[in-house]
Design brief:
The complex is a heterodimer. By secondary structure, chain A is an alpha/beta fold. Chain A has a single domain, classed as Rossmann fold (3-Layer(aba) Sandwich). Chain A is built from seven helices and twelve strands. In chain A, helix 6 links the parallel strand 9 and strand 10. Chain B has one domain. Chain B is globular, with a radius of gyration of 21 Å. Chains A and B meet through helix 2, strand 7 and helix 3 of A and helix 5 and helix 6 of B. The complex binds adenosine-5'-diphosphate and magnesium ion.
């Protein structure tokens, strides 16, 4: 579904990603872990199409029905989203004056049009959204609040998952959606992600902690350090990291203690 | 200055001998200043001397015209005169018809003719007004919403509308002023609205300015508030070539509250100068301001807001927020918030920003599948809605919304040129 080859990315003239290779197949859950500043969010944002990053080498191919083999990096962010890619932001933006329901409706209808489906009218749309709210144990009043404005950290993360649940992406990338959540919120988020699981869908979980992985079991775990994937393994790798930190994986690094998750 | 043109216009006014005498006095007061010039500190950004290059004259004809439907009582004005009064109206009347009533004699000019330092535009209006609205709500009533809708269709006409609103103690009303004109027609619309709020009275006052793109619109709104009264103004200013809107509120009684919200859009070559002035003259008074400004094309916006807390106005609470968006490199917005505090136990704050659309927000929306143009339009609408959304009256919001949507700049065009 996703093929990343030798991806190099810089911000300004500072290299951040230094040759990422990653294959994600339909039906799989991948976890990407790694110390702060290792480039996890950069990777996630580049996949979603954020401007301001220079791709200096490499390619990303997204293998979808409509976009067979197309270079993902050539697409505008909205085209990627309509092709089924969704990024849950590590730091969701606040948008005063725009109600959640406006964003959801505008987004869902754009995505539906792309899939060859008709726009939903107000009633059908509300039905759809309400079923997702119920799934995530969220109150309907959420819909009428301005997007993320004045939301607590946990509410923002839940709101990202709500958007994901409504848009039903084929490839969901969750950037530290678990950080700052209490255990109940964590379970709710995990429930939302697990409900999306499907043989034709894939999930990339960027996370700092292994505790989310107790609820969403990954097929593959990768460690990103210094802009490269330095180790890949199965779910057992996450447990090992929990015990040993990241230091043992980054031999050339000087100060390893701070890199413990 | 050319006194003849104003004297000739005075000949087109009518009234009792007393009225004519006071019009002449007002005209002489006007002659001592003439039109404001940039030499006046308050008029630094907006020159009006070009008006006298026009063939200014009192309007000849007041034609009736077909207005849109409004959710309330409609008082229709054409070229400065009442052309159609709503038959259902109980509290709204033509001012000219009631000019000799004791109420009008008592209140008209009370605020406008006593402005500290004088105000030339109020003076010329006091001399030359032909008609306007009288809204009087006696004790025990709640008035239906009144829509005062004005259409200008005469080139180079001077249109001095004059409105008087008197809400007696405990009453409530909604007043909407909607101004329009023949597209691209030059004229000068200079309106004065005096508002007297009795104890505990509440007024919601909406202004929608959609004057022609060649018009000059100057307006002055003066509000005197008694104890525990509440004034909520909401302005959507999207018309005129040169527009200058002054609002002055005196919070005279303790517990009085005013909320001044609005949005201006300076697009194409519009120059729009917005001045607010609130005087906290009594203890426990509250003022709130939420203004948004958008400038695009070669538009120029000015937001000047002055809040004065007088000695003795303890526990005054004043908050100002002004946020502004520049959508083109040739647009300009100047923001001047001023707090003048002469009491020690007060709560005052202000915040003013001028910036661009936040591209991180645009990306966030695009990452949800929303097209870039739509994302920007949503953000702009949301930005505008921060001020207009403060209107807690669904029928009025529904009426205003399409006017807002029509006025928002088309971003795809603006941002690529
Ligand atoms: N906009 C930016 N400008 C400059 N440097 C940045 C920017 N965003 C991220 N970086 C730098 O890139 C590196 C990787 O950051 P990030 O991808 O956020 O890491 P992670 O998500 O793994 O914590 C960090 O050193 C960070 O300081
Ligand atoms: Mg990160």
């Amino acid at each position: 579904m996703l093929e990343i080859r030798n991806l190099h990315v810089s911000i300004g003239d500072r290299p951040i990603l230094a040759g990422i290779d990653l294959d994600v197949k339909a039906g799989e859950v991948h976890a990407i872990m790694g110390p702060n500043g290792s480039g996890k969010s950069t990777l996630a944002q580049v996949l979603a199409g954020r401007e301001g990053y220079a791709v200096t080498a490499g390619s990303v191919r997204y293998l979808d029905r409509d976009l067979v083999g197309q270079d993902l990096l050539a697409l505008a962010p909205e085209q990627r989203a309509r092709a089924g890619i969704f990024l849950a932001f590590q730091y969701p933006l606040e948008i005063p004056g725009v109600a959640n329901v406006q964003l959801l409706r505008s987004a869902l209808n754009s995505v539906r049009l792309q899939r060859g489906e008709s726009e939903l009218d107000a009633m059908d749309f509300l039905d759809t959204v309400k079923s997702k709210l119920a799934l995530l144990d969220m109150d309907e009043s959420f819909l009428y609040r301005a997007v993320n404005e004045g939301f607590s950290g946990g509410e923002k993360k839940r709101n990202e998952i709500l958007q994901m649940a409504v848009l039903e992406p084929r490839l969901a990338i969750l950037d530290e959606t678990d950080s700052g959540l209490d255990i109940d919120a964590l379970k709710t988020v995990a429930h939302g992600v697990n409900a999306l699981k499907h043989p034709e869908r894939a999930v990339i979980l960027v996370t700092h902690y292994q505790r989310l992985l107790n609820y969403i079991v990954p097929d593959h775990v990768h460690v990103l350090a210094g802009g490269r994937i330095v180790r890949s393994g199965d779910a057992g790798l996450a447990l090992e990291l929990e015990d040993r930190g990241y230091g043992w994986l980054i031999p050339e690094s000087g100060s390893l203690e701070e890199m413990r998750p | 200055m050319n006194p003849t043109l104003y004297r000739r216009a005075l000949e087109h006014t009518i009234g009792s001998p007393q009225q004519m005498a006071s019009r002449k006095v007002a005209l002489e007061r006007f002659f001592t200043h003439g039109l404001p010039t940039p030499r006046d500190e308050d008029w630094k950004y907006t020159a009006l001397d070009f008006l006298e290059q026009m063939d200014l004259h009192a309007p000849h004809a007041a034609e009736d015209w077909a207005s849109e439907d409004y959710p309330g009582i409609v008082m229709r004005f054409g070229n400065g005169r009442l052309t159609d009064a709503d038959l259902r109206s109980i509290h709204a009347h033509g001012l000219a018809d009631h000019a000799d009533s004791p109420l009008v004699v008592r209140y008209l000019g009370r605020l406008a003719d006593t402005l500290p330092g004088g105000a030339a535009l109020a003076d010329i209006n006091s001399a030359l007004w032909q008609d306007g609205l009288l809204l009087h709500v006696p004790v025990g009533w709640k008035a239906s919403p009144v829509f005062v809708t004005h259409y200008a269709s005469e080139s180079d006409a001077m249109l001095h509308l004059r409105h008087l609103v008197v809400l007696e103690a405990g009453t409530e009303a909604v007043l909407v002023e909607h101004d329009q004109g023949t597209p691209d027609l030059p004229y000068w619309h200079n309106s004065v609205t005096e508002i007297v709020l009795g104890e505990g009275a509440r007024l919601t006052h909406i202004k929608l300015d959609e004057d022609s793109a060649a018009a000059t619109h100057t307006s002055l709104t003066l509000v005197g508030q008694s104890r525990d009264s509440r004034y909520h103004a909401l302005s959507l200013l999207v018309g005129g070539r040169v527009a200058r809107h002054d609002t002055r509120v005196n919070l005279n009684g303790s517990g009085a509250e005013c909320q001044l919200d609005g949005l201006f859009i300076a697009d194409a070559r519009r120059h729009i100068d917005q001045h607010l002035h609130v005087e906290h003259a009594a203890p426990h008074t509250t003022s709130r301001q939420t203004w948004r400004g958008i400038a695009t094309g070669r538009g120029r916006g000015i937001f000047d807001s002055r809040v004065v807390v007088q000695p003795g106005a303890q526990k005054a609470d004043a908050q100002q927020s002004s946020r502004n968006l520049l959508l083109s490199p040739h647009a300009e917005i100047d923001v001047k918030p001023q707090l003048e505090i002469h009491a020690d136990d007060v709560r005052c704050s202000h915040g003013a920003t001028v910036g661009q659309l936040d591209e991180a927000q645009v990306f966030y929306l695009r990452s949800r599948g929303i097209a870039a143009d739509t994302a920007r339009a949503l953000l702009l609408h949301g930005f505008a809605g921060e001020a207009l959304g403060l209107l807690k009256n669904a029928a009025l919001s529904d009426w205003l919304e399409p006017h807002l949507a029509a006025a928002l700049p088309l971003l795809n065009k603006e941002l690529t040129t």
